[in-house]
Specification:
- The protein has 346 residues and is α/β, with parallel strands linked by helices.
- The protein folds into two domains: 2-126, 3-Layer(aba) Sandwich (Rossmann fold), CATH 3.40.50.720; 151-314, Dihydrodipicolinate Reductase, domain 2 (2-Layer Sandwich).
- 32% of the residues lie in helices and 19% in strands.
- The chain has helices spanning 12-22, 42-45, 62-68, 80-84, 87-92, 107-114, 132-141, 150-164, 194-197, 211-223, 256-267, 316-330, and strands at residues 2-7, 27-32, 71-74, 94-97, 128-129, 144-146, 174-179, 202-203, 230-235, 242-249, 273-275, 293-300, 305-312.
- Helix 1 crosses helix 12 (316-330).
- The longest helix has 15 residues, at 150-164.
- It is globular, with a radius of gyration of 20 Å.
- The structure holds NADPH dihydro-nicotinamide-adenine-dinucleotide phosphate and N-acetyl-L-glutamyl 5-phosphate.
- N-acetyl-L-glutamyl 5-phosphate is lined by residues 99-100, 149-150, 179, 183-184, 205, 211, 233, 235.
- Residues 99-100, 149-150, 179, 183-184, 205, 211, 233, 235 line the site of N-acetyl-L-glutamyl 5-phosphate.
- GO terms for molecular function: N-acetyl-gamma-glutamyl-phosphate reductase activity; NAD binding; NADP+ binding.
Length: 346
């Protein structure tokens, strides 16, 4: 049995990790870490866990947790994991960080976009970017995994095969993304209040969102060129879900069947990626509560552009589900253990 500790178990991403790990047959949660609910029963913080989780919340002492756990998940604000990380921790437990602390290889880029100093840059090189479908073999051997961002997971996986095969002109790529409000976390913030979000849709972080360099870096590896793109996120009045619509010029003439064959080449055996039937557009509703990524494309021959569409649940494939998928790889377990979640509807 894998002993798992969660720092930040009282946040939205941490809460989803608790839900998933409770259904994992090879993992047991031994630490419900929090900052403001220490000594409170976890089932009182989240009533859905009433009479399911009787344990009390503990603190965020990663060093102590490393002595007891096989794996530590940090579902904490940017900078926390980096500020705690020590060789001694990694020598004792594997770490899966849900924040962005180890996602970006160039520390100067991280510090510029996140506006904070990186407290343990010596571990950045070792960290493996935990996009399972792309970096599976490296993840299996990793001690430290940087779980990808929610927008970035959806944006990268939706375009990855076409970037890799040189079918799209990367200099023309534009990503329009929409997220449900749980993506912003549980902390109280005025822009996320009911009256600000309900019956509304708004762009934010225009030309400045911190997921931009992460997407650029990863799609740059795929395309084997430096990538600069436009990424515009929007907040929409729903709880969960991310929908991305990506636009790029085609470098050569292709048919839908050609493009489908490329996606099949990369994702044909992927359990969690569903390339939809021709003409069917991904919808957040059809992936909600699951680890699936739904993808489809449409070629617009009039403009010589291809429109790529992807949908995920931000809290599952965009956070906790992918983290569990990473844990499964790191511990040699079947990749889908604990993740055979059927999307819920309505
Ligand atoms: N929400 C999402 O869809 C996604 C989130 N993520 C990432 O996961 C991480 C958590 O996000 P999310 O769950 O949304 O955030 P929340 O604000 O909902 O939760 C944050 C968690 O971290 C704890 N915490 C806050 N400040 C500190 C601190 N200074 N030291 C230790 N613990 C602290 C909180 O404890 P307490 O409750 O006690 O205050 C809480 O458990 C972030 O890095 C985020 O970027 C990644 C992908 C998707
Ligand atoms: C809707 C919303 O506010 N989303 C968050 C992104 C989600 C997140 O938590 O960021 P990481 O995936 O990098 O950890 C934001 O735009 O800041």
């Amino acid at each position: 049995m894998i002993k798992a500790g969660i720092i930040g178990a009282t946040g939205y991403a941490g809460g989803e990790l608790v839900r998933l790990l409770l259904g994992h047959k090879d993992a047991k949660i031994i630490w419900y870490g929090s900052r403001s609910y220490i000594d409170r029963k976890y089932g009182d913080v989240y009533q859905n866990m009433f009479q399911i989780v009787d344990e009390k919340c503990l603190d965020d002492n990663m060093e102590e947790l490393a002595k007891q756990a096989d794996v530590i998940f940090t579902a904490t604000p940017q900078g926390f994991c980096a500020s705690m990380m020590k060789e001694d921790i990694l020598a004792k437990a594997k770490v899966i960080d849900l924040s962005a602390d180890y996602r970006i290889k160039d520390v100067a880029v991280y510090e510029k976009w996140y506006g904070i100093e990186h407290k343990s840059p010596q571990f950045i090189e070792e960290a493996v970017y935990g996009l399972c479908e792309v970096n599976r073999e490296d993840i299996r051997k990793a001690r430290l995994v940087a779980n990808p961002g929610c927008y970035t997971t959806c944006s990268i996986l939706t375009a990855y095969p076409l970037a890799k095969e040189g079918i799209i002109d990367m200099g023309t790529l534009i990503i329009d993304a929409k997220s449900g409000t749980s993506g912003a976390g549980r902390g109280a913030k005025v822009p996320n209040l009911y009256c600000e979000v309900n019956e509304n849709i708004k762009a934010y972080g225009v030309a400045s969102h911190r997921h931009t360099p992460e997407i650029e870096e990863q799609l740059g590896y795929a395309a084997r060129e430096k990538v600069a793109l436009n990424f515009t996120p929007h907040l929409v009045p729903m709880n969960r879900g991310i929908l991305v619509t990506e636009y790029a010029s085609l470098k050569k003439e292709v048919t839908y069947e050609d493009v489908k064959a490329v996606y099949d080449k990369y994702y044909g055996n992927e359990r969690f990626i569903r390339f939809l039937d021709e003409g069917v557009c991904p919808e957040t509703k059809w992936v909600e509560g699951s680890n699936y990524v739904d993808i489809n494309v449409k070629i617009d021959s009039r403009t010589n552009r291809i429109i790529m569409m992807g949908a995920i649940d931000n809290l599952v494939k965009g956070a906790a589900g992918q983290a569990v998928q990473n844990m499964n790889l790191m511990f040699g377990l079947p990749e889908s253990e604990g993740l055979k979640l059927v999307p819920m509807f309505p």
